[in-house]
Specification:
Helices cover 29% and strands 25% of the residues. The chain is of the alpha/beta class.
Length: 118
């Protein structure tokens, strides 16, 4: 995790990474620089601007999107306030098990949410 408000991410990051996730607004140039931090064969995930150039050999680019739904958020807030919101956490697994958790999810074998811990 890097606090992009304190230091530019590209300057703070040391080396390259298997997975790079960008959730902060970024210019096309900043996004390209972030995507370039992804190892060959890795994954670059962005919730904002997609890269303008291919980031590297075999790098998968995933553009994540969310839908703003005020009524749904109000309903969740109401359930949290009344204590009726429940999240079924079925398992807690270390980050090293992430690939196995994804495989189980792909098979439809997860019952409830899995929390990944560091």
């Amino acid at each position: 995790m890097i606090d992009y408000t304190a230091t530019p991410v590209v300057e703070a990051a040391k080396g390259s990474f298997d997975v790079v996730v960008n959730l902060a607004p970024a210019s096309p140039e900043e996004t390209d620089a972030l995507a370039a931090l992804t190892e060959d064969g890795g994954v670059f995930v962005t919730a904002t601007t997609p890269p303008t150039t291919a980031p590297g050999h075999g790098v998968q680019v995933v553009q994540m999107a969310v839908r703003s739904d005020a009524a749904q958020l109000a309903g969740l807030l109401n359930r949290a306030a009344t204590g009726t919101l429940r999240i079924d956490v079925a398992d807690r697994r270390p980050l090293a098990d992430l690939a196995a958790v994804h495989a189980l999810a792909g098979q439809g074998a997860l019952k409830g949410k899995t929390v990944i811990t560091l």
